[in-house]
Design a protein that fits this description.
By secondary structure, the protein is of the alpha+beta class. About 45% of the residues lie in helices and about 15% in strands. It contains 13 helices and ten strands. It has helices at about 60-65, 80-90, 100-115, 135-145, 160-165, 175-180, 200-205, 240-260, 265-290, 300-305, 310-315, 325-345, 355-375, and strands at about 15-20, 35-40, 45-55, 70-80, 95-100, 120-125, 150, 210, 215, 220-225.
Length: about 375
Amino acid sequence: MQFGYSQPKLSSKSTISILTVGTADELYAKFGHSAIRVKDPNLGIDVVYNYGHFDFNTPNFYYKFTCGKLLYELSRGSFSRFMYSYEVENRWVKEQKLNLTTEEKNSFLAFLENNYKPDNRYYKYDFLFDNCSTRIPEALKTVLGDKLTFDYSHLTKKYTFRELLHQNLEVNSWSNFGIDLALGSIIDREATPWEHLFLPIYVYKQLPHTKVNGKDIITSDKTLLDVTPKKTQNNFFLSPIYILSLFLIVVAYITYKDYKNHTRSKWLDFILLFVTGIAGLLIVFLWLGTDHKATANNFNFLWTFPLNIVLAFFILKDNLPKWATTYLYALIGFLVLAMLIWIFKVQDFSILILPIVILLAIRYSFLIYKQRSARVH
């Protein structure tokens, strides 16, 4: 809907409300969504302001997304279209109407319209600190100032950022494994009550404990779209714990056969070193080469380790260089160090890495044995 060249003046019949959208199975939808609805029956206005919009047609989209340089924007669209999209996605929608004076509503609309200007609507998205959810309490603070007060006493337990993310993820899932692999120790500190609001559900739960002008900011809370969640049939045989445990058994068996037959499966060693090296390079790149704050200080690089990609090509030879033994001892040391970092809660790793760490320890130990045996003979 277009407002023309001037912002309309909202009437006393107008309402401004916060919309909260439920989660879905797709990774981008696992954490819910928030938006702002402005409605005025006198003016025929019913629009939604959405800070979670981005354009797939952005040049170098995937590169910018990976590097944390992708710009999100504030969009403005019809309420009916907003609702239809989530009806299609089978996600619930709840609405909390705000207890604002007509003057405050117009100030809020002016704020949104100013944000919607082409020069202002784009912002560099940050999943933890600047997203569609954090923008809503920030907007309320900007518009209402000292008239707004937050009461956090309902938060009987405060969580780390990682624990907050885990609330929306199944432990035995590839999405959980990937997120824990990519995000660093920076997300293992306890989030402040304000920082909990990066998740839409926490904004939804906070608003009933928020006051404006000493009165509850919420006048009504109702469900606009109630859905019956679809039961997803998770195939255990495709789950990470099954596949990684199976891989551990296969590696242990091949290593045992190699030991008994005095051989070495070079193809297996190449795969292990090449894959962990690539993973390590990606982790270091996300840490040092991008604008993502949440990927910093990621000690997953200790058990993946980027330089493994170098040894991967030496490992294809019958005789390894002399430095390989020292390097393999260092790799085992890094595995131990990673476990200590986990135990002492410097960084919380995914429980799903245990089969990988065990199989790497088995194979590295075997390679050291082979190297030492070759020297003796």
